[in-house]
Amino acid sequence: MSLSNPVKHLRFGLLIFLVGISSIAFAQKAIQPKGSLFIIGGGNRSPELIADLIKTAQLGPKDYMVVLPMSSAEPDASFAAIQAQLSRQAGNKIAKLNFDAKTVNDKKWLDSLLGAKLIFITGGDQNRFMKVVLNTPVYKAIHDAYRNGATIAGTSAGAAVMSRHMITGQQLRDTVYKETFDKLLDKNVAFEEGLGLLTSVIIDQHFVKRSRYNRLFSALAAYPTYDCIGIDEGTAIVVNNKKIRVVGESQVLRISDPKNLKVNKSHHLKMDNLNFSLFTAGDEFSIK
After folding, report:
1. Helix %, strand %, coil % for the chain, to 5?
2. What whole-number distance in Å separates Cα of residue 80 and Cα of residue 247?
3. Does residue 205 sit in helix, strand or coil?
4. pTM score, two decimals?
5. What is the dihedral of CA 136, 137, 140, 142, to 10 degrees?
6. Is 16 helix (H, G, I), strand (E, B) or coil?
7. What three-state secondary structure class fits 162?
8. Residue 132: other Cβ atoms inside 10 A
9. Where are the domains of the chain?
10. In the prediction, which pLDDT does 178 show?
């Protein structure tokens, strides 16, 4: 076929462009996870909240749940607490997989994790959890289970790990740990790599209870194109692709899209007209 005619060149180029766009759109649609995220801000978990979690997971009679307690300094106690709550709402089997350096390659454990319909990550220390999981088959199994239709749930530290850029809790400009940041400065919030189940969202937890506004504003300054979401205790967000539903007893805050983000000579942050939304149970919103 001759393409000497400029019109033919243009038509052929347009065809290639449209085919490329369609292929990209198909690929993006194909990799959308079939599962959900159920992200709890810590604190007490009401029976109603757990019932919503079980409903979200859509457990069948033969489905089972897995608890990952690696965040906790007392994994047996953490497992027992959530096991008791889950078993009151569903009769399905609940397994504890407390992975460590010796078991992260255990095929039997990994197959059990991959086949779970509900995976629950307990509270504790998000850094402790990621030190066990990052760059291991456990990380991949969690992602594969999510893509295949599992609900991945977490509370407190188990909420923080959902983000790609995970808040660690440390201030870079202060060596003393504080639950509530007392500074609102540039490059003050410390991040480590999280699970990355949310790629354009940063999650903070215990939010209203511990007044973590300064920490979330600092996170937004570090990643101004992200949605930064603070979840209070006893409250959760349910994520289905880009759609979010709020459940629980308190509130969820979202901040995003700051304008004219600047830093003065003393490292204090400045920004204009950021989007600021506060949600309660039953509310729905979208993320980027």
Report:
1. 35, 30, 40
2. 24
3. strand
4. 0.89
5. -100
6. helix
7. coil
8. 18
9. 1-31, 35-286
10. 84
Q: How far apart are CA 116 and CA 59, in angstroms?
A: 10
> In what side-by-side order are the strands of the sheet with 201-205?
201-205, 227-231, 251-256, 275-280
Q: What is the four-CA torsion angle of 56, 60, 61, 65, rounded to 10 degrees?
A: -60
Pairing of strands 93-96, 251-256: unpaired
The model's pLDDT over 101-151, given as tens digits with 9 standing for 90+, comes to 999 999 999 999 999 999 999 999 999 999 999 999 999 999 999 999 999
Mean of per-residue pLDDT scores for the chain? 91
Q: Tell me the mean pLDDT in the region 189-199.
A: 97
d(CA 254, CA 271): 16
Instruction: Report d(CA 168, CA 125) in Å as an integer.
Output: 8
Does the structural domain 35-286 have CATH classification 3.40.50.880?
yes
What would the two tokens of residue 59 be?
């457990």
Distance CA 67, CA 50 (A): 14
Name residue, tokens 């319909």.
Answer: 117
Q: Could you read off the pLDDT of 23-60 as tens digits, one per residue?
A: 444 334 447 899 999 999 999 999 999 999 999 999 99
Q: What's the pLDDT at 176?
A: 83
Task: Tell me the C-alpha distance between 50 and 201, whole Å.
Answer: 24
State the amino acid at position 192 in one-letter form: E
